[in-house]
Amino acid sequence: MKTLFLYGEVKLIKEIERLIDIAKLLRDPKDGCPWDLEQTFRSIAPHAIEEAYEVADAIDNDDIAGLNDELGDLLFQIVFLSQIADEKDFFNFNDVARNICIKMIRRHPHIFGDENIETPEAQSLAWENIKAIERRKKQQVDPDIHGQSALSGVASALPSLTRAQKIQKRAAREGFDWPKVNQVFEKIDEEILEIKAEIKDYSDVSRLEDEVGDLLFCCVNLARKLGVESEIALKKSSAKFEFRFRAMEKFAEEKKLEFSSLGIKEMEELWRQAKKVKC
Questions:
Q1: Domains of the chain, each with CATH number or no CATH
Q2: In terms of pLDDT, which residue wins out, 151 or 166?
Q3: Per-residue pLDDT averaged across 88-94, rounded?
């Protein structure tokens, strides 16, 4: 078993302790910040999610200085939430750090134990197997909270595409999956026909919403079968569309045309020009 150093340099420990002290002061009933004192788990959760997205955005933009800054913001959300928990005698930041250390060691038996895993693919499979075992143990301890399902634990707050893909992966691990990708294409065709039928007999927007949702779910399934992350794929397509649309607006401006007044044929011509510009 390899030697493990959990806590690095003393200087790092002091900076973490300093950050914890800042969170405590902000929440101090007498001298704290009025806004920070009003916050709860629920009110802070959206901020934590936002900071995580800003971290991802800095990475996408290759903004290393920004990444340094955004990681600090995200770390503070963790410290701040831990402070609220500490005040309620639930847990504290040290408990959070200790638990993640234990979890990482448990999920890497090939590093901290005697197992032999040589490829990323094998590690991914081993990781999912360990997580499945952990879920079963949690269900045994408290079945009402964790639920008796292979789909338990997939966070409802995840972006919809990401959550759909995670749910599908879990179901596939249990054997509920199309054997061939062509079957997914057939299902997509079927869902498109159902949308067309719903449009023809349009009477309830919620029914149309259901059918469109089924089509999107199938498209996520196709991405999964092809080894593509649907959330990333859509993000790239949205960015590409935005780049080209902005190029269209620029071309129209150069020609002294009012973009919103153009007809669809004129816009399509600008779109063709925009597609020639490298993103």
A1: 10-116 (1.10.287.1080), 160-228 (1.10.287.1080), 232-275 (no CATH)
A2: 166
A3: 97
Contact indicator for 229, 223 with CB cutoff of 8 Å: yes
DSSP letter (8 states) at residue 262: S
Whole-angstrom distance, CA of residue 56 vs CA of residue 71: 10
Q: At what angle do helices 41-60 and 64-87 cross, to 10 degrees?
A: 160
Is the C-alpha dihedral spanning 70, 73, 79, 81 positive or negative?
negative
The whole-angstrom separation of Cα 265 and Cα 244 is 16
Q: Which residues neighbour 253 within 8 Å (Cβ) at sequence distance 6 or greater?
A: 259
Q: How far apart, in Å, are the Cα atoms of 66 and each of 20, 44, 187?
A: 22, 22, 43
- The first and second tokens of residue 16, run together, are 């973490």
Both tokens of 242, joined, read 């935005």
Decide: helix, strand or coil at residue 1: coil
Per-residue pLDDT of 125-144, as tens digits, reads 887 788 778 777 776 666 55
Find the mean pLDDT for residues 21-44: 96
pLDDT at residue 180 tops 60: yes
Q: List Cα–Cα distances, 233 to 24, 54, 148, 241, 276, in angstroms.
A: 41, 18, 32, 12, 21
pTM over 0.70: no
